[in-house]
Amino acid sequence: MSKKILRKIKGKQAMLIADCNEIEFSSEPQYILGILNCGLKNGIKTEIIIERINLHARLEDIILPHNKSYCFLKFENAKDSEVIYNDFLGKTLWNECVPLLLSYVKHLPQINQNELQQCPDGLILIEDFITPEMENKLISLVKCDDNKMKNRNVQHFGYEFIYGSNSVDHNNPLEQKIPSECDDLWKLLDQKCEALVGFRPDQLTVNQYQSGQGIPSHCDTHSIFEDPIISLSLGSSIVMEFKEPISGQHYSKFLPTRSLLILSREIRYKWMHGIVPKKTDIIKTEKGYLTVQNRKLRYSFTFRKLKIPPCCDCDFKNLCDVKSNERKVEKEYSNQEVDENVAARLEKENVHKVYNEIGNHFSETRHTPWRKVENFINSLPEGSFLLDVGCGNGKYLGINEKITKFGCDRSDTLLNVCTHRNYNVFQCDCLQIPFIDESMDACISVAVIHHLSTKERRLQAISEMIRVLKTNGKALIYVWAKDQQKDNQKTLYLLQHQEKNSDVKDVPEIATLQIDENKIELPIHRNRTQFSHTNNGNVLVPWKLKQKEVAESEQKVFLRYYHVFDEGELETLCKMHERIKIVDSYYDQGNHCVILKKI
Amino acid sequence: MKLLTYNFLTSKCIKKVKVGYPLKLNIMEQKVESTNFNPEFIQRVLPRLDWSAIKIAADSVGCQGFPDEINLETSTNDTELLQKLHHLLLEIEVVTGSLICPETNRIFPITNGIPNMLLNEDEV
To answer: GO CC terms on record (chain A) (predicted)?
Structure first.
């Protein structure tokens, strides 16, 4: 072994010891062998490893810690482990730059693989449910026509499954009923599954999967199908992946050909299932070692029974379409802050442009000043100078005749409204206020900072207000709160349920925005509901532009970017500045609010 | 834009600009709307004014008779000066024109009475 490799191994061992407690390495062969520099995080090719190992030895298990760049091979005995150690050490199996660094492991602590060990509730697999003859007969029924989907061929019987809305129209059954050849299946089901005696589905979806095709993770719409959903695998075996979105738990199930999968209770309502698009699966053989199996052309026959009328009273709100108003969806967003390089462009497209477009309609809806903001302005001493940062249509610039007021905003449209009202305004970005230092007695910023897409930018907006304030000057800041209910009192925003004509009912859950070369995914908020997403508070809020000449269905929907604030988040941001004192902080009509004083 | 607003505007937000004040003022179109003269208001405003900016403003609109220096103690009782300031700061509206950074000569246009102080991404 070269000195260089040895040195690298020593380094990696030290890192692993720091990373996972109680791990113990050994220089003597052990039945566990660690690959110290390859894992899920850096794109390990498990298939290549397993195929190569299977030439010489038997691999019982491969332990892949979540989001780590190392993994562990578990052999039946230390002798097999030694063979592989000698074969693999320093070799490059798929990436010329990454020679494998290995070490025997004497003791391996519990590893979090996020992999559920026991079978989730409600999952039943009946192997060899049908004979090979029946399998052939069923496959011959399916003539795949032109109804091509993106990733696979599909055919419906009984009722058509509509993919856009994930629903069926129960008033519109298909002429093509479930083929009578399937009748034999129900006799078998009665015999083989006591719990499902008498279950007679009325809808069948047949999918054809080429090797390499898969299906995205999904949960069959709760309200439209009965419990259970059953699915026959024909033509090829496959591994199906199950995921529980709240805990992030994962479970894989090998579905051999001719087996019947039954999804009921938790696995039906609480879990999502899908198939990873790849050409091979790693499976455990009967003798208990891992092997790589090629996928072949596979058909799945998924049988469901419609619920008429659609309804659901499950206990699993998370994925339930009926309880969508209350649910908290944990989506697979990046869950990170918006990238600093994208932030300015995102705000340009999804804040500035939108306000210019919707400005006049928006202005019509913004006429009543919030009482507490009005009180703040009226409390300022006579002769004070006030700057409204993000003044919009100027609804606060007309309050208190005894003080001098200036307003600034980004939007041309809204500033024009202000000049018609004879207010002193100028156009700028709240990140660069073109006013001299220490010149104002007070600043207000109402519903502005929540349009900034990174923490740095939100901080800078507050800094700028502090800069233009005189010593002892006060600033009032309002931002939209993630929580739209306080002490069980719903805010006006929630109570005005679907009454605003700017509200939008039918929007997708996620939007993918193309910002230069970057694609970012943001959840879309449903108007007049609690903010249910946990994407660090970053959401898009729709606005439907009301135009008199335009028909309801044609009216354009704009998506405004918001960062909705957690409780305490605004105070924390303010406190990061020197020279200020927080005078008051409160919750007002769905907003978090702070009054600060420059000291 | 009222010239009271002009008194507070700066281009210091531009990268590498140190003071950015007072801005040069170029007026293409202006209008005058008389308002009630309130001497106490002007008296209170006096200490907030930067006389270098006021001189530029007065020159630009063609208002005569502003002293080179301001003495706060005497000026506060100088009714003639207070009236002139009232006219300059509150009655004149700059409709079209531009503001110019004294250090970089970056032009900020004024259209429909609104100065556009927006900066490009590469200027900040």
So the answer is: cytoplasm; nucleus
Check if B119 contacts A (Cβ < 8 Å).
yes
A508: Cβ contacts below 8 Å, ≥ 6 apart: A524
* ipTM (interface pTM): 0.97
Tell me the domains of chain A and their CATH numbers.
3-105 (3.30.70.330), 123-327 (2.60.120.1520), 340-599 (3.40.50.150)
Q: Which of A366, A392, A368 is nearest to A502 (CA)?
A: A366
Quickly state the pLDDT bin for B3 (edges 50, 70, 90).
very high
Give, as one character, the DSSP assignment of residue A51.
H
B59 Cα to chain A: minimum distance (Å)? 21
Instruction: Let me know if domain B3-116 sits in CATH 2.20.25.10.
Output: yes
Is this prediction's pTM over 0.80? no
Q: Contacts of residue B10 in chain A, CB cutoff 8 Å?
A: 434-436
C-beta atoms of A424 and B2 within 8 A: yes
Domain boundaries, chain B: 3-116
Q: Dump pLDDT digits (tens) for A374-416.
A: 999 999 999 999 999 999 999 999 999 999 999 999 999 899 9
Please state, in angstroms and rounded to a whole number, the distance separating the CA atoms of residues A373 and A582.
Answer: 16
Q: How many CB atoms lie within 10 A of CB A560?
A: 19
Q: In degrees to the nearest 10, what's the CA dihedral of B66, B70, B73, B75?
A: 10
Q: Which pLDDT does position A112 carry in this prediction?
A: 66
Rounded CA separation A407/B76 (Å): 28
Check residue B103 and report its DSSP letter: T
pLDDT over 70 (residue A172): yes
